[in-house]
Specification:
The complex is a heterodimer of chains A (429) and B (204). Chain A is α/β, with parallel strands linked by helices and 429 residues long. Chain A has two domains: 199 residues, Rossmann fold, CATH 3.40.50.740; 169 residues, 3-Layer(aba) Sandwich (Dimethylsulfoxide Reductase, domain 2), CATH 3.40.228.10. Chain A is 36% helix and 20% strand. Chain A contains 17 helices and 19 strands. Chain A has a nine-stranded mixed β-sheet with strand order 5-4-17-16-15-6-7-13-14. A five-stranded parallel β-sheet of chain A has the order 10-9-8-11-12. In chain A, strands 1-2-3 form a three-stranded antiparallel β-sheet, with helices on one face. Chain A is globular. The mean pLDDT of chain A is 95. Chain B has 204 residues and is of the alpha+beta class. In chain B, the strands form four sheets. Chain B has a two-stranded antiparallel sheet with strand order 1-4. Classes of the chains: A alpha/beta (429), B alpha+beta (204). At the A-B interface, strand 3, helix 1 and helix 7 of A face helix 6 and strand 6 of B.
Chain lengths: 429, 204
């Protein structure tokens, strides 16, 4: 069967124009999707049934037993951590927040190790952003700062920015200028009209220099700034000021390099300066397909976007204290539920070691690095393939993902609702 | 000093030498008919295939510019080496130089361009820059140009199974836009220039 307008649930681009060919419960063809989408849909490495660690071996358990055991582990814990959520749909995230509340635990999503600093900067100075549709239809200058869309969001350039013909930009790449700022010459830099190579850790200084030039105080810059020549800084600033509509996209090169949230704050304030001359926007390049959704869902239920601690009975948020890495580093949590992400592959070693020591439960369709740290793994349906739900694109646009066929596994929502029901009954709530 | 000056005068003031110098019998300075000068416009309509530019071996010797009446090739004389390949490659006979067009007509010869697109699947990220930027694709399917959704199978390039795929090679005009905008150097366009003799129908 041929299914049109399928939503790809891999990266934050959330492309919704794929054409998928299915044969029963198998996907046999992917059209319009990038190579990452192709692997996501065609890959066949699902875990077949729930598994439990027994000594140094894995044994298969029934779904009911697995759910009961997961609930018991969470009920026994004094400070459970519910981490992940970016690779599942909003409905499951919502159940997760309620589960954290009833358990009095901490709920955190993957932005804690990616765009957390961006959110902190946005909380300080706001977010002059726009949807990707605006960028596609209007932007004649596009900047990628510390991001390599060709490898991380392959279709970003062809679907939303440089290469797409827009309503007011009829001749796509011939009318648009592409600026790439990075510490190394990436694949995206190969396409750039202007590639700005900065020394590692020099983002803040370069942003400040650009702000000074845009403010008309260019004379304070006497020589190169973090490896960028004065001439190039002036050229880039002029290009931005002359734009009819400019868009900055920043990635982890900016959020996770020295300066962190202050880098983003500076970038947002550069955008603000540029708005004195023309129209400019700034947006984060969100990684997981629904990491933006997890921030949204957490926000509208608890008031905070990530790292929410319910230990006091009310929602408490303090990045650096209630963030997953810090909790694990302090060896504070005594049980962990990982949903739809892979901290084993991305967290510091000390945190991964603590995850291996405490009872860790993973709800994920695939065997990944976290599987090797956990006690119990429950496979679920993959949202966008055999489960459906709401997801938020990197620009905050909610898109309903589609179910292509009925699979053999329950969805995240179903599993979490069942765990929630057991916990609720035990708590007598 | 004075002696050498006298010798000098004696050498040049000989009658024989002066006759040869002033009344030399050389061949008349006329341009032979087979001489190829810089290509000139014949007045025929340019269809903007750019084959002249593709065939030209001298960098910067020819370009095609937009004029009020349409497109028109322009020769840069400082760069042109007068090889005449542009004249032969043009499908419409827009340019002429010497007897190139004439001899092509009598000998029934032509220069034919064909194109070949190779995609290195190990390098291709399936980003779709090639398929979206492709000017041929844009004409066939506007949706493709507006963000990479293929709504027809008649496209030149398409992203299928996560890799760029050539569907209709015969539609390629050899512009190399795809190659220029591939971030991973995964797509390569080869322009094959062949000299053929004989009527077109026989070749087909």
């Amino acid at each position: 069967m041929r299914v049109e307008d399928v939503v790809c649930t891999f990266c934050g681009c959330l492309c919704d124009d794929l054409v998928i060919e299915t044969d029963g419960k198998k996907i046999v063809g992917v059209e319009n999707g990038c190579t990452l989408a192709n692997e996501k849909f065609m890959g066949d490495h699902r875990l077949k049934s729930p598994i439990r660690r027994e000594g140094d071996r894995w044994s298969e358990v029934s779904l009911n037993d697995a759910i009961r055991e997961a609930a018991e582990i969470l009920l026994d814990a004094d400070r459970p951590l519910l981490y992940g959520w970016s690779g599942t749909h909003g409905e499951a995230q919502s159940v997760g927040v309620h589960l954290a509340e009833i358990l009095g635990g901490v709920i955190d999503n993957t932005s804690t190790v990616c765009h957390g600093p961006s959110i902190m900067a946005i909380q300080e100075v706001g977010h002059p952003g726009c949807t990707l549709g605006q960028v596609k239809n209007r932007a004649d200058v596009v900047l990628y700062w510390g991001a390599n869309p060709i490898e991380a969001h392959p279709r970003h350039l062809s679907r939303y920015t440089t290469y797409a013909d827009g309503f007011f930009v009829k001749n796509s790449f011939r009318e648009r200028k592409l600026v790439v700022v990075d510490v190394r010459e990436t694949e995206s830099a190969a396409l750039a009209d202007e590639f700005v190579r900065i020394e590692p850790g020099g983002d803040y200084a370069v942003l400040s220099a650009l702000r000074a030039i845009v403010r008309g105080r260019g004379e304070v810059i006497t020589g190169p700034v973090a490896g960028v020549s004065r001439e190039q800084l002036v050229r880039v600033a002029d290009l931005c000021m002359k734009a009819k509509f400019g868009a900055i996209f920043f990635g982890l090169g900016l959020t996770m390099s020295p300066g962190k949230n202050k880098n983003i704050r500076n970038a947002i304030e550069l955008t603000e300066e540029l708005n004195r001359h023309t129209k400019f926007t700034i947006s984060p390049m969100r990684g997981h397909w629904n990491v933006y959704g997890s921030n949204e869902v957490f926000c509208w239920i608890t008031g905070y976007p990530y790292a929410v601690d319910f230990a006091r009975g009310i929602a408490f948020y303090n990045p650096g204290e209630t963030t997953s890495v810090d909790i694990l580093r302090r060896e504070e949590c005594d049980a962990c539920l990982v949903v739809a992400s892979d901290p084993g592959a991305h967290f510091p070693r000390a945190c991964a070691e603590h995850l291996a020591r405490i009872p860790t439960i993973q709800i994920d369709p695939h065997v990944n690095a976290t599987t090797h740290l956990c006690r119990l793994q429950i496979p679920v349906a993959v949202t966008g393939i055999d489960a459906e739900g709401t997801a938020y694109r990197m620009d905050g646009v909610p898109i309903r993902t589609r179910k292509l066929f009925d699979g053999d596994h329950p969805s995240d929502t179903e599993i979490l609702e069942r765990i929630y029901a057991i916990v609720k009954e035990a708590k007598g709530a | 000093m004075a002696t050498s000056f006298v010798y000098y005068l004696q050498e040049f003031l000989r009658l024989e030498w002066m006759q040869k110098f002033l009344f030399a019998k050389t061949a008349p300075l006329v341009t032979p008919p087979y001489f190829r000068d810089y290509p000139e416009l014949t007045g025929k309509t340019c269809t903007h295939h750019l084959f002249c530019m593709m065939a030209c071996p001298a960098p910067g010797a020819i370009d095609v510019v937009k004029v009020p009446t349409g497109w028109q090739p322009r020769i840069h004389v400082g760069h042109c080496i007068r090889c005449g390949l542009c004249v032969e490659a043009c499908p419409n006979g827009v340019l002429n130089s010497g007897r190139v067009l004439e001899s092509m007509f009598y000998d029934n010869t032509r220069l034919v361009f064909t194109f070949r697109i190779d995609v290195d699947h190990d390098r291709c990220m399936g980003c779709g820059n090639c398929a979206v930027a492709c000017p041929v694709n844009k004409v066939i399917d506007a949706e493709m140009g507006h963000g990479g959704h293929a709504s027809t199978d008649g496209l030149l390039l398409i992203v299928r199974e996560g890799k760029s795929k050539v569907l209709h090679l015969e539609k390629c005009t050899g512009c190399k836009t795809c190659e220029e905008h591939c971030p991973t150097e995964a797509i390569r366009v080869a322009r094959l220039l062949e000299a053929v003799q004989g009527p077109e129908v026989e070749e087909a």
